[in-house]
């Protein structure tokens, strides 16, 4: 399969929700979000709609469609995890109050394409998965509910071609600093298509800039 037929067209997917938290990894206890959606979170939304071993999603650009607004929340969390060596977990003894700084009333336009992988079979081709993705978006189908950084913040999604012209991003430019690009995993995904983190799980970062509401991810320098 030559390069011309290994890559899909660019899709534009609008995603939105009441809250989002794209957690900064340097914050050890409290959850504090990045200012905008991270590339890995954008890819996660796409994979929730369509993931197959034969394709790999590549995010090209993220547009911020609503002004960046914050919401500070204090809530109770359980500070321990259940294990096979425990007979149970008494929540009252493990409850911890933590603060979170989340994004409020968010909307993004994800520009992305997929590429065929070495796991593609003889029956797999770009056109097949393009049509599959568009059909699933149109019907609102997904393998699991897409989310905006944290699973508790569900994401709504819709193809831009269904709503007319590409929505305009906000008119704001700012330096976003070093941002998480993705997690490199040596392990395969589990049955629910979620990455499983191993000892060889490592983060990569990039110097992010938002130009008039757009974060361009093409040709960026990524560091581990």
Structure, described:
With about 220 residues, the chain is mainly beta. It has a domain at about 5-80 and about 95-170: 2-Layer Sandwich (Alpha-Beta Plaits). Helices cover about 15% and strands about 40% of the residues. The protein is built from four helices and twelve strands. The strands form three sheets. Strands 1, 2, 3, 4, 5, 8 and 11 form a seven-stranded mixed sheet that branches. It is globular. Mean pLDDT is about 85; it is low at about 185-200.
List the helices and strands and how they pair.
Elements: E1 11-20, E2 31-32, H1 39-49, E3 55-64, E4 70-78, H2 91-94, E5 95-116, H3 126-139, E6 147-148, E7 150-154, E8 156-159, H4 160-163, E9 174-184, E10 202-210, E11 214-216, E12 222-223
Parallel strand pairs: 2-5
Antiparallel strand pairs: 1-5, 1-8, 3-5, 3-11, 4-5, 6-7, 9-10, 10-12
Regarding CATH, which class of the domain at 3-78 and 95-168? Alpha Beta
Distance between the termini: 31 Å
What's the number of extended β-strand segments? Answer: 12
CATH fold-level label of the domain at 3-78 and 95-168: Alpha-Beta Plaits
Q: Based on the structure, what is the oligomeric state of the protein chains?
A: single chain
**Count of helical stretches:** 4
What gross morphology would you assign? globular
What composes the largest sheet?
Answer: 7 strands, mixed
Q: Give Rg in angstroms.
A: 19 Å
Helix content: 10-25%
Report the β-strand fraction as a percent range.
35-45%
Order of helices and strands: EEHEEHEHEEEHEEEE
CATH architecture of the domain at 3-78 and 95-168: 2-Layer Sandwich
Q: Segments where pLDDT lies below 50 for 5+ residues?
A: 187-198
Mean pLDDT: 86
The helix/strand class is mainly beta
